[in-house]
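Quick start: read one record
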Amino acid sequence: MRKHHNRKKSSLLQRSMLFLMAVLFVCTAGAQPVIVFNKAEHDFGKVNESDGEAVHNFTFKNTGSSPLIIKNVTTTCGCTTPEWTKQPIPPGGNGLIKVSYDVKGRPGTIDKTITVLSNGKPATVGLHISGEVIGIDRAPAEAFRFKMGSLRLSEHHLAFDRVWSYEKPTLTIVAYNPGAETVKIEFPNLPPHIKAEVSPASIGKEQKASIKLTYDAAKKNEWGFVSDRVSLSLNGKQDGQYYLMVTANIQEDFSRWTAQQLQNAPIIAIDPTVIEAGKIKKGETKEYKVKLTNNGKSKLLIRKAESPSQQVKVTAPKEITAGANAELLVHYDSAEQSGAQSKIITITTNDPQNSQITLKLKAEVE
């Protein structure tokens, strides 16, 4: 009788423990950190190049119910350096993202985006800094290093860095006319996603003009790293050397996603992330397979897969349904190569945590 009573008591204790564990699991599963920034944009206004750098602290609070961890803070420009709170931030606690912009040698517009990745809600937050750097008064030969016809330019490459798919950022460069003849600048064949303004349009002797380009990412309708060669004319004359290089890295702003979208987001898994090709005879062409898996709850879109190397060609699926996998094919041509080789492949997706992934191909060409 006592044995039966002990078994009953033990069974009741086990059920109570299971119930408590279930309650604890539900409470823990429901706990989530929430990241709220005091503000997500900062305008430095006018900054003197002689100041060296412009610094701003973006502050945030964890308004959720579990510790917040900042996983990473990224920029696409070496001129912008982020520092951030590394330790877990408890519910109700505060943290900061310190952003330093190096203004030295960068007169003109400040227009940069910083991406914050965390375990919180939302998982991805975009911060933005803007302003104008007032340049040091330099000799024309130093300040305007790039020659174009009779003009000299402060820059000939306008890099828009990370651009959200809905944005229309602007960048400005300066043209200087050291000659005696007045020069008129025009853009006769602009692509639809780029708008150019020249003020003044005609530059007299030893005068300057600003060239402002506005980039419409929605009209470009592409993803990832993109480039355009924008031609211009001087006094109606066009030449193969009269052009500006315009580049951008077009990304999706996942901070705009709803909580439900993020909960049901696609999740990409890649195997391998480094292709160890080993030894290859010079002139050989090889094909390698990379497994892509969608571990999320919605369709994974492979928006772009490419390599800057002419020796590497990439073939990728357009989309992968939830729970499925597919193959990405990498073709490597070792012609005109020798010795140790390291090639980069960039994949752009709609996974909020891995919207842009870099793969490597390593080979030894004999």
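The helical segments are 2-30, 140-143, 217-220, 259-263.
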